[in-house]
Amino acid sequence: MFLAIDAGNSNVVFALFDAKSRTWTNQFRLETKTPALIAQLSKKVPLYFLEHGISVDQIQKIGFSSVVPEINGIIEQFCEHFFGKRPYLIQAKSFAALPIHTHRPNEIGTDLMCNVMAAYTRFGGPVIVVDFGTALTFTTVSQSGEVLGVSIVPGLQTAIKALFMNTSKLPEVELQLPDSVLGKNTIHAIQSGVLYGYTGLIKGMLEAIRLETGLTFTIVATGGLSSILTNLEGVFETVDRNLTLDGLRLITEANF
Q1: CATH number of the domain that 10 lies in?
Q2: Is 57 one of the annotated active-site residues of the chain?
Q3: Which member of 6, 18, 57, 111 is catalytic?
Q4: Which residues are 136's β-sheet partners?
């Protein structure tokens, strides 16, 4: 089995890929916050493997993508101790072996490169990957595999939290698309403003990219919140929550 570890700003995702069935068979996540992470690694990871009857000997290779550098050493040490293997940490130098390229490899997040590696491998270019995470990102790739650019805005949950934390009377609300754009109470007003607003933002950003490049793109969505905006049906060629994991595996296999 291949073990993918994807460390994001909110969660660290562990996922197992079975080479025979070519599927991701198991996934679980831990909070990224460092003090909690150390405790969770030592307790929850061994317990998960025990409860699901998975032996550490079944793990043949580990790929590791991280946008949180301060936890990299913690994850690497844990892998060496628990699995007896050092994970392959995806870095800027990893991109030299890939069919996709960026002019600033040290500046682009490895999670975004994982996304476009998986999307470009599956669909070819031109492709845009919309990632619904802590940040909402648009990564654009040309026919030849060149990363043309990245656009970043606050993610859906980040926007909701910003309203809650920076106002005295607005509550933190559930991310649920309301039936009407016209909010009838405070909760519905926030849901309407953020979720219908982001619908327009996403459509507008995709159209701006098309107009500037003159290209027709395959649009791929991923990320834990990619299923929230149900009114975007038809905008995306596919919604694949495992896209980052697929790219992580492909980049690791190309280098390690």
Answers
A1: 3.30.420.40
A2: no
A3: 111
A4: 132, 153
